Each structure stands twice: as C-alpha cells, then as structure tokens.
Amino acid sequence: MKLLLAEDDPQVRVELRELLSEEGYTVVTAADGIEAFEKFRDDTDIELMLLDIRMPRCTGLQTLDAIRRIDSNEKRIYETIFITGNNDSEAVIAALKLGAFSFLFKPIVIEQLLAEIDDAKDRINQRRYRRFREDTLKAQVESTTNQITRLTDELRGGFAGAVELLARSAEYDVPGIDLHVVRIGDMAACLSARLGYNTLQQQQLRLAAMLHDVGKITGPRELYSANRQLTPEEFEQTKSHTVDGAAFLSHHDEPVFAMARVIAEQHHENYDGSGYPHGLSGDAIALDAAIVHAVDVYDNLRAQRPYRDPLPHYVALDNMVNGDEKSTPEHFHPKVLQALLSQHRDIEAIYERFRIPAVNHGNDSA
Ligand SMILES: [Fe+2]
Ligand SMILES: [Fe+2]
User: Fold this and answer.
1) Helices 180-194 and 199-210 sit at what angle, rounded to 10 degrees?
2) What kind and span of H or E run contains 97?
C-alpha cells in the first residue's frame, strides 16, 4: 500500500518514513499542504494520507478540503489520518466533517499508529469490495435491461408481423388487394395522431385497423375475388364479413384484438346511420372504426377495381367531400373527415409508398 506522509517537522518526517518503510509500506512524503495536495493528485496509487494538521502554506484540513473538491464524484478510494500536536477540538470536528478516518496525537505512539493504519486498510478494502459489487451489479442490470429490451422489440415485431400476415391472409387471393391492409393500418395511425391518440394508441390502432376485413377469411371467397362488380344480392352476402370478423377476433382479448373486434364490426357503419351491419350513427360508432371507415373508402377509391379505373388523389378526396354515386359526406365522422383533409399529403404519401405496381401489358424494351 502506498502512503502519503505530510509533516513539516523534518525529523518526525524522516523517522516515520523509515518506520513505515520497514513495515512494508511505500511512503511518499511532503513538507507542507500544497506539496501533499499535488503529490496526491498526481499519484493515483496513494490510498492513505497521514496529514499533519498544522503545516506551512496550507494546513492539513485545507489540503483534504482541496482534494475533496477535485474528487467531488468520489471516484478515488482513500482514507485520511490526521496528526495533531495539541488538543484542538475545533480542528478535530472540522476534520471529521471532511471525512477523516481518525486522529493521532503527538508524540506519536508507534503501536497506535500501526493499529490505525491497519484499521484504515480494512476500511479501504471494504470500500473497494463494495465498489466492485456495485459496479458488477450495475453491469448486470445494464446487460439484463438490454436483453429485455431486445426481447421486447423482437416480440413486438413478431406480434405485429403475425397480425399483418393474419390480416393479409383474409384476402390473399384477391387480385391487387394484398397491400390494402398495410396502407389502412398506416393511414389510420396517421389520422389518429392528428386526432390526439398517444403513441401507444396509434401503434395499437395501426395493427387493429389492418384486421378490419379479417372476417372475409370465412368466405364466400369467390365473391371477394370476383373480377367483376357484384350483384346486389351478392353484395348483401359480403356484408357479413363485419360480424364474422368481430366473432373471429373475440377469441382473443389482447388489447389490439379487442380494438380490432370493434373496428371489424363497425367499419362499414356511416355517421348518418345509413351503413351496415347495425345502422349505427354518430358517436355510437367507435372513433377507431370511424377512422378506418374513412381511410378504407379513400383507399378503395384510389385502387383499380374490375368495374372502374383508379382515381387520382384529388378526385378521391373530392368524391368524399362532395359525394359520389356511392357515398355522401354525411357518411363520415366530421372530425375524421377534417383530419383526413388536414393530413391528406401524408395519406397520399402512404398510398404511393405501398402502391401496387401497375401491370405492364406492353413488351419490355430493355
Ligand atoms: Fe370491409
Ligand atoms: Fe378494406
């Protein structure tokens, strides 16, 4: 162990140095407080200081005070034993406040000095061990937290992937429709952000919205994949995909599925009560479903249909705001329609990002 001995009396300094060296300690000496401060600061191997309280230029107390200031986050582990020539109780109290380990009074009794140094060594070892345990624990907690975060991310990603696949499976054989659910998820999340949903609610809605048409999984498949406009009777049959989807999703009560169940059941309800399957109106329709309803209509207007060409962005918006042969503006929740118009650039960008590439019927020139 390396000691710093700061003592202005040369004779005491030399005697103590020899004695402590004989005991196996490496001893660095200083003749005053400033020298002691500099040597301690520059030599990080020093673990124990023996500081005379009364020294020229800078007292032992000032030395320890200065050292504590440069090590304010207590990175170094060390102890201080003060040496004092008289019973100066004020200095003793000040030294204790500064964190002194103990005191020795002159004339120094050798056995007492060695015993104090032994005790200080024990304290240093205990502190070192405690620091080691803390560091190890901190590293363990950090590594475990990282693992949990990675695992949570993987699970979240896996869950989202499974929901997307389930949603897409309901219409996997319908020509040109496969990315519809992905667009609806993103568009719904986009509008919900505008309507004040928090981040978690937006993420849940994104997944739940993808499942809006999952009821189509029970068929009739030939109608959903028919490459023509449906007859009124056939259209009636397809309406059951709402309640079928809700029934299918009720098998699981995870929050995303609970949200999806309501969306599946209500995403064809119109705000004015003219929709299906229940003819709900106004606030009886869940806002989640009203959002999906609006983006579903927008996306369908943009898409190629067997009976009509895809509509450009502005025409699709115009049809929703001013009405067309299928719908009137009263079909939509006013706030949702407003949010759609406010965010229309983002909605268009989502459509373009997941647009199905046009089929090229011409000859490749490349
Ligand atoms: Fe639907
Ligand atoms: Fe849809």
Assistant:
1) 150
2) helix 89-97
184 C-alpha to ligand 1 centroid (Å): 11
Ligand 2 centroid to Cα of residue 195, in Å, is 21
Instruction: Name the token pair of 356.
Output: 């199905």
- The pLDDT assigned to 211 comes to 96
CA 281 to chain centre: 39
Sequence-distant contacts of 159-163: CB under 8 A, at least 24 apart: 159/207, 159/256, 160/207, 163/207, 163/210, 163/211, 163/256
pLDDT confidence of residue 71: 81
Question: How far apart are the CA of 239 and the centre of ligand 1, in A?
Answer: 8
Of 187, 238, 241, the closest CA to residue 217 belongs to 241
- Cα of 10 from ligand 2 centre, angstroms: 94
| d(CA 131, ligand 2 centre) in Å | 60
- Identify whether 175 is preceded by a cis peptide bond (ω within 30 of 0): no
Q: Which of 36, 31, 37 is nearest to 11 (CA)?
A: 31
**β-pair type (79-84, 102-105):** parallel
* Closest ligand relative to 292 C-alpha: 2
The DSSP string of 127-180 is HHHHHHHHHHHHHHHHHHHHHHHHHHHHHHHHHHHHHHHHHHHTTTTSTT-TTH
Query: 249 alpha carbon to ligand 1 midpoint, in Å?
Result: 14
Ligand number nearest CA of 238 is 1
> 255 preceded by cis ω (within 30°)?
no
Please report the pLDDT score of residue 175 as a whole number: 67
User: Residue 224: its pLDDT value, please?
Assistant: 80
Q: SS3 for 47?
A: strand
Domains of the chain as residue ranges with CATH: 2-136 (3.40.50.2300), 171-353 (1.10.3210.10)
Alpha carbon distance, N-terminus to C-terminus of the chain: 80
Ligand lying nearest the CA atom of residue 268: 1
Å from CA of 152 to ligand 1 middle:
32
pLDDT confidence band for 364 (50 / 70 / 90): very low
- What average pLDDT does this structure show over 239-257? 94
Alpha carbon 191 to its chain's center: 23
